[in-house]
Amino acid sequence: MPPTDRIRDHAGQGAPTVAAQRTRRRLRADRARQLADLLRHQLLTGGFPAGTLPHESTLATDYRASRNTVRQALDLLRAEGLVERLPGVGTVVVAQKYPHGLDRLMGLAETLREHGYVTNEVRTLGPAPAPAPVAERLHIPPGADVLYVERLRRLNGLPLSLDLTYIPLDIGTSLLGADLENTDVFRLLESTTGRRLGHAEITLEAVNADAHSATVLEAPRGAAVLMLERLTHLADGRPVDLEFIRFRGDRITMSGLLHRSL
After folding, report:
1. Phi and psi dihedrals of 190, rounded to 5?
2. Which one, of 148, 149, 151, lies nearest residue 162 by Cα?
3. Which of 21, 47, 137, 157 has the highest local Cβ count within 10 Å?
4. What is the pLDDT of residues 29-79, one digit of tens each?
5. Residue 16 pLDDT class (50, 70, 90 cuts)
6. Is the distance from CB of 187 to CB of 179 less than 8 angstroms?
7. What is the spatial distance between Cα 180 and Cα 62, in angstroms, rounded to a whole number?
8. How much is the pTM?
């Protein structure tokens, strides 16, 4: 008897009917989530080049799952906006997530240059007093002015991220007349300072979109977004760029190459 059948039999032995049904539903939900993870990876890596997933019966056979489990897994992917069910066609891929590497220090346009053109809508630009946590991170006196920039960034016209940027004013002033609509801040910093960027400290977490972010990103209010906090330093170690970047989670996927070191 397959291990999964033994688990189901053991779960149901001696249990009341309602409890046994709950156990079966939980196990099916667990298997559906596992199958959705496998299918999601294929969706995002071009595993279905024709844009259509195999029939439910084929998926059930290939993954040794029940039809109900397959349907539940596809429902999860549909809720994420990755697939849709079309009458007479089947389940088709309707969305794409773009890869964003975490192992190189690059601007968004540099990162996604193979996937299209990045444009920036500059929503706010100008000097502003640095909040205490910002001043501390940028190693400037409390209350000193910084250049504050808020940009909505689009890839091929679709909203992708909302970036809030703080730059020390002695460096940021030179960006006031720069082409922020079509150029990454990283490139502008290097060109205006004549120095290379060196490294960045990053934190990545999932947060719920607030009303403002959701409106700007054209995402449902409360939807999960990927929040990337990044403090970038020049090659000499000076911190020059503190960013809080909210990515639409349904349009970006983060990846990196890790090496084990003990």
Report:
1. -70, -40
2. 151
3. 137
4. 889 999 999 998 888 778 888 889 999 999 999 999 999 999 999 999 988
5. low
6. no
7. 49
8. 0.77
> How would you classify residue 81: left for phi > 0, otherwise alpha for psi between -120 and 50, otherwise beta?
left
**Radius of gyration in angstroms for the set of CA atoms belonging to the chain, rounded to a whole number:** 24
Please name which of 216, 223, 226, 217 lies closest in space to residue 252, comparing C-alpha atoms. Answer: 226
Decide: 155 and 176 in contact? Cβ < 8 Å. no
pLDDT digits (tens, 9 = 90+) for 76-115: 998 888 899 998 889 998 877 888 888 889 999 999 999 8
Q: Are residues 124 and 148 in contact, defined by beta-carbon separation less than 8 angstroms?
A: yes
**Token digits of residue 116:** 């299209």
From residue 64, alpha-carbon distances to 3, 24, 59, 67 in Å are: 13, 16, 8, 10
Angle at 246 between CA 159 and CA 122, to 5 degrees: 55
Token pair listed for 49 = 């080049």
SS (H, E, C) the chain: CCHHHHHHHHHHCCCCHHHHHHHHHHHHHHHHHHHHHHHHHHHHCCCCCCCECCCHHHHHHHCCCCHHHHHHHHHHHHHCCCEEEECCCEEEECCCCEEEECCCCCCHHHHCCCCCCEEEEEEEEEEEECCHHHHHHHCCCCCCEEEEEEEEEEECCEEEEEEEEEEEHHHHHHHCCCCCCCCCHHHHHHHHHCCCEEEEEEEEEEEECCHHHHHHHCCCCCCEEEEEEEEEEECCCCEEEEEEEEEECCCEEEECCCCCCC
